[in-house]
Design goal:
Structural class: mainly alpha
Helix content: 55-70%
Distance between the termini: 22 Å
Radius of gyration: 19 Å
Number of helices: 13
Largest sheet: 3 strands, antiparallel
Oligomer: single chain
Length: 361
Amino acid sequence: MAESAIVSRHLRALWALPGTELGVVGWPATKRERIFGSWHYWWQAHLIDCATDAANRVPTPARRKRIAALARSHRFRNLTGWTNRYFDDMAWLAIALERAERTQGTDVRSALIALEKALYEGWEPQTGGGLPWRIGSDFFNAPANGPAAIALLRLGRVQRAQEMADWMDATLRDPETGLILDGIHLPSGEIERPVFTYCQGVVLGLETELAVQTGEARHIERVHRLLAAVEEHLTTGGVVRGGGGGDGGLFNGILARYLAVAAVMLPGEDAAQLADRRAAAAIVRASATAAWANRLEVEGEPLFGHDWNKSAQLPGGSAGAGYFTPGGSVTSSKVSERDLSVQLSGWLLMEAAYQVSAAGL
């Protein structure tokens, strides 16, 4: 139902081109949004990732065709090729397209070659990083390094992914809470201290997959430590807390995705690993139960709230749309539920809940 709601409310052909499909970033949409004047590169990457989840859950020709159409449309709308100036954006797209190719046979090899090159060559050990947030920036953050390391790991760059994981653990982990902080300015060393749920998610996913690939104990230990910190500081009654709109609308869904990865993939049969897998799955299940209970039903389809612990609000129309800030992020709409990011987070959460339930967790 989460999939169906996004397909019916948000998916449209790009500029009336045949064989294209892209997500309109607001519902109800402004004219600018309807014609893809605003389109938000990294939101569309998560749309591709969710479409791949659905095809993996119940493979159908229509779902496979949709993934190919979304990928093709992403390339058309980006105008200049597959890449852009933001390493976080490119990392999310690389993750989505690598999964689409590996699990559904989507033909995106040229994209992955271009994205892998950009992510691999962007690493700046000479500065003290780290991958910068965007080309030429002095800010090296978890939202770029986490997903980039996951993408590079899945593309076979195990050593670089491990270097990135070690860098984040040494540089961005808060010794007080155990949570991953946003990022660091280099070479000044000034740390930006906000804590975002998706930073925890990508590090959990990365360390889990490194534990599988390398068998090294430090990765399992980091998952254990970070999972405990997430439970203590970022959940209420077992449900991921908070949430917003705009770019922030995706943060909690991303945490849910990688909690599911930890629940299903974390290696080891010791009591600690069994407990960690159960704990990760429990947060996903509790969050999905809360989000579903607090949804609105609009024309028979769910509209998820930006905060899964609170009742969803119905957008009054296309007024109050979010916008780009000078810093390059997207603000929330006046009613966050109109943002595609918030609804993608709900879909992401439901797919994560399916994965942990199907694994018997």
